[in-house]
Every structure is written in structure tokens, then in C-alpha cells.
Amino acid sequence: MELPTAWSLDDKSSFLSVDSSGLRVNYEGLGESQNETGAIRANHPIPPQCKLFYFEVDIIDEGKNKIIGIGFCEKKVDLNKMPGWDDGSLGYHGDDGKSFCSGDGNSYGPLFSTGDTIGCCLNFTNNTVFYTKNGIYLGIAFRDLKGNLYPCVGLRSRGGSIEANFGHRKFKYTAINGDDIDDESLGKKWTNALNMCDNANDLINFLKIKQDTAHALKCRGKFNFIMEKYDDALIDLTRLLEIESNSKFALRYRGEIYYLMGKYKESCKDVNKLLKIEVNDEWASKIFIELSKKILLFSWN
Question: Coiled-coil regions in this chain (predicted)?
């Protein structure tokens, strides 16, 4: 099963250049009109038998006008248009925070710029796409996907530059990494398990671990979290906290699930406890700021 590993040197706009690693893309135009848009596809499409595919894009330089889009497209799509502007194409744009699919745009997430890392996940189990920003989940952007899709990026910003991570190094979105499971052998199998398994029971069998142990609860809870089966994930994470009351793993994922479900007080309780255990936890510090904004907004209303 061939997966995307780099940008294609032969499948790109003339407005773009690619460095020797095949990962960094630079915009070479002036970016003064839509006719100077440049996009590029990855070297392989994502095969449907791959249940889930995730990649990240570091914004090295936003450029003059910050027009950068990240997403997926079919082979037929015009590479002189931004992701999402053509049929068979979808993308999240940094200059306006909108998601675009086949020409239609909708408000989606925050703007992104130099120094940000945007993650993009295609889930063939439920045919959805979600994005992350600097390790924080932003929610589902697209549903009911069709077609043979390639990762793609588009730029129309003088001096703009991005660099992709197709899995050759750790992702900022830690849910996709396996290193927080606290078992080296399971961690190494985690990404393959995500790519091969349809449900949590398949995952446990694939990883060859006993049901209802702490490791099984972690793996099942994390898998259901990624697959957006939040009620099932909450059951396992709560059971894990009954076994390990100070489990940073369970507090982190249960806190994020509560946040995504709009249960901000419950989320705040878990995040506060996590910060007492690990004062410098990067994820907890970021989500605490977002929680404070949400709770303050609700108190005003």
C-alpha cells in the first residue's frame, strides 16, 4: 500500500518550487491576481483501504497576502486554483479561515500564519475530513467524501513557504502519535493500527492486548476519540481514571472530548487537574486559554 510521502515534482504549478527533500514548497510568483495561484499534489493518492490518513503543514512564511490553502484534490483538478475552488477539491484557507469544497466556501476555523502548524486528516471510516491547528482539534470540515484524493496545498502569496510532515517526524497533534500510550511496542504499532482497523475491538485484536486492562482502555479511548465516537471514548477514559485517578492520558482526552461536546465546566475540571499534575503541559495550557474564553462568553450571555 503506497501512501503519500512527499510532494510530486512533476505534478505542480509553475508558480511553485520544491526543495531537495520533496517536503518544502516555495511560492515563486508575485501573487497579484488569481491567475498567479499555484498548487501541488503529493506523490501518491490515499488508498481507500487506508482507514485514516493524517499529515501536517508547517507555515514557514505566510508571505505578503497570507493566501495559503491546505487540503485534498483529485488528479483531474487544475493546479492553478486554490484547494477547494474546483470540483473534486477541498481545502482550509489561512487568510480567511474558510473551508472550501468544489467552489463553495463556509466559515470554519481560525486564520493561520507564519509559525503555525495545520494538520489535515482524511477518515475513510466515516468519509470526513478534520483539521488541527498547533495540535488543537478544530472539528469536522467536510463530509461525504468521494473520489481518489491526493494531499495538496495551494499558495498565492509572494514569499510564501510551507513544509509538509507526512509522518517522517512526530506530529504536533499527539492523538495521532503513539508515544503517549506509555508502551514502546504498542506506540510503534499505533499508526499502522489506525490505518488498518474499522473499530475499537479490531484495534485491540490488532495490537494483541487483553481487554479492559489499562493499556486496552487507553487504546480504545484514544481510537474512539479520533473516530469521533465520543460517548464510547468517555466510558473507557472514565474507567481508566477509576483505575489510575491521576492518569494524565485520561484527563487530557476526556477534557478535550468535554470541550468538543460543549461541556466546558467538565472540561475545565479535567484540564485544571492535569495542570496541577503537569504544570508545563503544552496542550493543557493552550486549551485552558480557549476554555477561559468560552466560559467568559457564556457568563456574559
Answer: none
